[in-house]
Design brief:
alpha/beta; 351 residues; 12 helices; TIM Barrel; binds iron/sulfur cluster; 2 domains; 12 strands
């Protein structure tokens, strides 16, 4: 019988309790070390050398369960709001971005990437302009959490929320993303509450439905940005393949499965989608669905950008209309505006 656990190119199988126990038994390692190892990797984001376990345990784990991390090539800290953008390097020389958002309340959110570049071409998005390089593996997705988690551990913090809103469309990399989510919410691994993990899609009906079926408690967000096809298609080309009627039909089915409201991301662009009429179309589109709408001010990359941020007064009026109709609405603060870490701005120039 071999000591090596079944091949797992997803993530070290530390999160599979029975297999880890068998490994410890075969190696005659103290079973009491198992909890410390898992806790060290997933909660405290430690290296094996930092863990209070025996030398034999450290040596065996180092050999069989290397903890995936990514090299931090660059770190930019916002002077505005205490967020940090990490430029991380993959083993094959590609670059991805992860954002740490430290809220004043002490809650920390990680915004992680699921692809290098993106398959979609949303016209306002810097990542979309990069083109698509490849999907990230489950290990690379989770390595972002471990790498950022180590930075946070040195500050006495830990990741409380993980949102898949970085580079890429998560549901175009569904298998790897779903495995990562399963490990994030696994009580013997990262042990995040499912309500603290959010997967955001630009609106892939079949994939969103499948995700909701597997993870009814994990938060699902839809980047909508317009509630009529004429406005949405030029902003999000996906709308030409899956129009709003198809999307709404899927949302109705998803609502029957899910146990919490659907998050609607709506970025407001000046004179594109921010009029009273646009707000009323949104009311109509979401009628009968349990949603929470996040209104997000657009962050223009520069003054030549064809999209410009909405005016504050228009955003307030947009919000008012939705609230008058009984919708839950939050105006979102956009983190990291001075370090191009805000929504739609993740695009390392050299990947
Ligand atoms: S907004 Fe999201 S789905 Fe659209 S191009 Fe950007 S990263 Fe891709």
């Amino acid at each position: 019988m071999t000591d090596v656990l079944p091949p797992n190119d997803l993530f070290p199988p530390l999160q599979i309790r029975d297999e880890l126990e068998r490994f410890f038994q075969r190696r005659k390692l103290p079973l009491g070390d198992m909890r410390a190892v898992r806790n060290g990797v997933f909660q405290l984001h430690q290296d094996y050398d930092q863990m209070e376990v025996g030398d034999a345990t450290k040596a065996a784990c180092k050999e069989h369960f290397p903890i995936p991390t990514l090299e931090v090539l660059e770190r930019q800290d916002s002077r505005l709001d205490n967020s940090s953008k990490l430029l991380l390097g993959t083993r094959d020389g590609l670059k991805i971005e992860t954002v740490i958002m430290r809220a004043g309340t002490g809650r920390t959110t990680l915004c992680i990437s699921s692809q290098v570049g993106c398959t979609e071409k949303c016209s306002f998005c810097s990542t979309g302009r990069l083109g698509f390089k490849r999907n990230l593996s489950t290990a690379e997705i989770l390595a972002q959490v471990v790498t950022a988690g180590r930075i946070l551990a040195s500050e006495g913090r830990r990741p409380r929320n993980v949102v898949f809103m970085g580079m890429g469309e998560p549901l175009r990399n569904q298998e790897a993303v779903e495995e990562a989510v399963a490990i994030l919410v696994n009580p013997v691994a990262f042990a995040l509450s499912p309500s603290r993990v959010t997967v955001s899609s630009l609106g892939l009906p079949k994939e969103m439905l499948a995700f909701a079926e597997r993870f009814p408690q994990v938060r699902l967000a839809l980047s909508l940005h317009a509630a009529d096809d004429e406005t949405r298609s030029p902003i999000m080309p996906i709308n030409q393949r899956h129009n709003l009627a198809e999307l709404r039909a899927a949302l109705v089915k998803i609502q029957e499965i899910r146990q919490s409201d659907l998050l609607i991301q709506f970025t407001l662009f000046r004179d594109r989608n921010d009029s009273e009429e646009h707000a009323l179309r949104l009311v109509e589109f979401l009628q009968g669905l349990d949603t929470h709408i996040n209104l997000i001010p657009y962050n223009a990359s520069d003054s030549r950008d064809v999209f410009q941020p909405t005016l504050h007064s228009r955003m307030l009026r947009f919000q008012e209309i939705l609230q008058e109709k009984g919708f839950k609405v939050t105006r979102r603060y956009s983190f990291g505006q001075d370090i191009a870490a805000a929504c739609g701005q993740l695009a390392n120039k050299s990947s």
